[in-house]
Amino acid sequence: MFHVEREIGGSAALPTELEPPAAAATVFGDRLDIARRYCAALATAGVERGLIGPREVPRLWDRHILNCAVVAELMPEGATVVDIGSGAGLPGIPLAIARPDLRITLVEPLLRRTVFLSEFIEAAGLDITVVRGRAEQSGVMKEAGGADIVTSRAVAPLAKLAQWSLPLLRDHGHMLALKGVSAAEELERDGESLAQAGAGKFEVLECGVGVLETPTVVISVERLPRAERAPRRRAEKEGSRRSGRSEGGVLRRGVERRRAGGK
Q1: Element (H, E) at 201
Q2: In angstroms, rounded to a whole number, what is the distance separating the alpha carbons of residues 135 and 161?
Q3: Complete DSSP assignment for 247-260
């Protein structure tokens, strides 16, 4: 077990194995020290409380912290972000460290996890709200609903995520699901379910291109206003027949378009 500072969120004296890679300075800038504290908290209390597996400790930066933080490039200035099934705070806490302008709420049903999140947030001085509960519960929807963006990572298959995420979004808000290399196949499999749930404008995007060795793959889905849903579904269905289900390819241009228009 690595020995690091025991206090959650305290000054992080990381061993050489856990020192941040060069990309971390690019992503976090002058808030890198807070990211280091988070890494230390995950490596100690996170492992002890069963939030992070011991085998994940050597790859906390690349596989977890940076992998999540780069998704911030898809988010406009001052966006309200709800992270469902937040667990150890991924992706919500790295996003909050990288982008202090974001207004972030972490939704997590398990007490031991919300205690860890609250302890770290307070110690690190982050402006993040923690809500204990499940995304589909009325109390959570009342407290966290109307968001610009809902994020998730390793929570559930896409169709189920849509049932939990879309009700928390405002019209034209976006569900951003961090996925792996099978994202395009999952989108093709669950595309009809997404449309039935009121979603449209499906995209598979890469974040952190040119910064991370392995970019983060994100499925982006927009919540459509009720008046737009039926016509859009028919158009998408007809378009899929004509193009042979062309949706689902990695659309790196989608990320570049957002960069051109701001953060």
Answers
A1: strand 199-207
A2: 10
A3: TTSB-HHHHHHHHH
pLDDT of residue 6: 47
Mean pLDDT, the chain, rounded, equals: 87
Tokens of 159: 């169709």
- What does the alpha-carbon distance between residue 227 and residue 206 come to, in Å, rounded to a whole number? 30
Q: Which residue has the tokens 């790295």?
A: 94
Q: Answer whether 172's CB lies under 8 Å from 198's CB.
A: no
Residue 102: CA atoms inside 13 Å, Cβ hemisphere, count?
30
- Position with higher pLDDT, 12 vs 217: 217
Least confident of 24-38, 136-150, 155-169, 224-238: 224-238
CA distances (Å), origin 74, targets 145, 193, 241: 20, 24, 29
What is the Cα–Cα distance from 186 to 109, expressed in whole angstroms?
26
Whole-number pLDDT of residue 57: 95
Reading the block at residue 197, the tokens are: 């749930």
Neighbours of 254 (CB within 10 A): 16
Supply φ then ψ for residue 142, to 5 degrees: -70, -40
Q: What is the DSSP letter of 16?
A: G
Say how far apart CA 10 and CA 62 lie, in whole Å.
Answer: 22
Residues 6 or more apart whose Cβ sits within 8 Å of residue 67: 91, 178, 208, 212, 216
Q: Which pLDDT band, with edges at 50, 70 and 90, does 229 fall under?
A: confident
CA distance linking residue 111 with residue 129, whole number of Å: 15
Q: How confident is the model at residue 4 (pLDDT cuts 50, 70, 90)?
A: very low
Is the previous residue joined to 94 through a cis bond, with omega within 30 degrees of 0? no
Q: Identify any residues that bridge with 84 across adjacent strands, giving them in sequence order.
A: 107
